Amino acid sequence: MSIFQTLFEKKQDKSLENYFTEIVAHLLQNDRDLLFAWVREIENRLKLENTEYTSGQVLTQQCIAGKYADLWIDLRANSRWDVIQIESKINSGEHHDQLKSYAANLATDFSNAGRRILVYITRFYDPKDPEEILAQAQGQVQFIQMRWHEFYYFLKKERPVDTLAQQVVLWMEECGMAHSNQFTVSNLSTMKDLLNLYSLMDASLNGDVRARLGEVLGLKLSPAPVLSHEYNCYTLCNKYDDNILLYCAVGFSLGSSIQEPFVEIDLQINPTRKEYGKFQPALESLVNQYGWEKWQWYDDQNAIEEGEWISIGMKKRLSDLVLEESNLNAIIQWFLNRLAEIEVVKKAYSKIPWEK
Question: Which residues are CB-contacts of 9 (< 8 A; sequence separation ≥ 6)?
Fold first, then answer.
C-alpha cells in the first residue's frame, strides 16, 4: 500500500480529486525539471513549439473570476508569461458549461499572457468538442484533453527511481488511474458479472421506486436507468438541460478501487429559471430536518446568490444495506424513505412549482 493511500484512509474529507490534485501540485512545484517536461508534453500534443521556460509556479484552488482552478501553472520565459489551467476529474464529470466558462475567462481576464492553455484531464473517457469549449474564447485559448493514465506513464518514464514519484505511481495504480484503453484478463472476468449486477440495480430502481418518484415530483423520467461515465453512476433521472427547473437522480454511485459504492439521491435546481430562489428554504428544510443520516449540500449554500445550480443529496454505503437479510428490499426501502422525506417538504412548501 502506498503512503498516500494510508494517509487518505485517515482523512475525514474523502475528496479524492482535491487530495490527488494537491499531491500532483507538490510533486511538480518541487521538481522544476519534471514540471517543464510535462509542459513540453502538453506543447507537443498541441503541436506548439517548445519553450525554454526559466521559472514556473504550480498553485491549487486558484480563484479565477470567482471559480477555483484545480491546478494553475504560471510559466515565465524572460519577459514572456504563459498560463495553463488544469481541470481534473476522477470520480465525476464536467459541471454544466464549466470548461466553456473557464476558456472564456482565460480569454478575457488574462489578455496579458502569451499562451493560455486549458487542460481537461480525467480518469475516465469523457470526450469534449474543442470548438464548443472555445466558442467564447475569441481564438485566444488552446484546449487539450488528457487522461490521468498518460500522466502515470509519463511519471514512470521521467522518474523511474525517485521515491516520492514512485509512491505517486503506486497510488495511481491503487486508484485505478493507471488504466489505459486496453482490455485485461481481469476486465474479462468482471464482464461476466455485469449482466447480473445491472439486473439487480434495475430491480431496485424500476417498479415501486419509479412509480413513487413520479408521484412525488411528477417528473418525466428516463425510460430506463442511465449509466453516466462522467459521474460514474447508474441512476433513474429526468433529462438534464437548461429548460428544466428541477433535476432529480436516484440510484447508485458505482465507486472506485478506493471508494465504496453508494446508493444516493440528488436534487438540483436550475439557476436560469425565475422560480429558482423560492427553492432554497425547501432545500434547507430537507438538510436540517432528518437526523444523523441526513441530506447535505453538495455545493456552497451561497450558490443561489452566484447563479449556480443548487444541489443537495443523501448517500449511504451500499455495503451497509447489503448486510441486511433481504438487501434488495432494504435498498428499495431506502429510496422510498428519501422520497417520503421530499414529499413531506413538498407539502410544507406547496406554493413552489415543483413539477414545472
Answer: none
Task: Please tell me the total number of residues recorded for the chain in this structure.
Answer: 356
Work out the number of other CB atoms within 10 angstroms of the CB of residue 285.
16
157-202 residue pLDDT tens? 999 888 899 999 988 888 878 876 666 676 677 777 888 888 899 9
Taking the CA atoms of residue 339, residue 226, residue 148 and residue 318 in that order, the dihedral angle to the nearest 10 degrees is 40
Looking at domain 3-174, its CATH architecture is 3-Layer(aba) Sandwich (3.40)
* Residue 35 confidence class, pLDDT cut points 50, 70, 90: very high
Tell me, what amino acid is at 189? S
* Nearest CA among 64, 178, 80 for reference residue 72: 64
Would you say 65 and 109 are in contact if contact means Cβ atoms under 8 Å apart?
A: yes
With b for 16 or more beta-carbon neighbours within 10 A and e for fewer, the 121-157 pattern comes to bbbbebeeeeeebbeebeebbbbbbbbbbebbeebee
Predicted structure pTM score = 0.63
> What residue spans define the domains of the chain?
3-174, 189-348
H runs (alpha helix) in the chain: 3-10, 16-29, 32-45, 98-109, 130-133, 148-158, 163-174, 185-205, 208-217, 280-289, 318-322, 327-348
List, edge to edge, every strand of the sheet that includes 67-77.
Answer: 55-64, 67-77, 80-89, 116-122, 142-147
Residue 302: is its pLDDT beyond 70?
A: no
Predicted local distance difference test score (pLDDT) of residue 72 = 96
**108 CB neighbour count, 10 Å cutoff:** 14
DSSP 45-92: HTTPPP---SEEEEEEEEEETTEEEEEEEEEEETTEEEEEEEEEESSS
Cβ–Cβ < 8 Å for 71, 85: yes
What type of residue is 50? N
- Average confidence (pLDDT) over 142-166: 92
**CB 61 within 8 Å of CB 71:** no
Taking only the tens place, the pLDDT of each residue in 274-294 is: 888 888 888 888 888 765 567
Is domain 189-348 classified as CATH 3.30.1460? yes
Looking at this protein, which amino acid is placed at residue 331?
Answer: I
DSSP letter, residue 162: -
What Rg value do the Cα atoms of the chain yield, rounded? 22
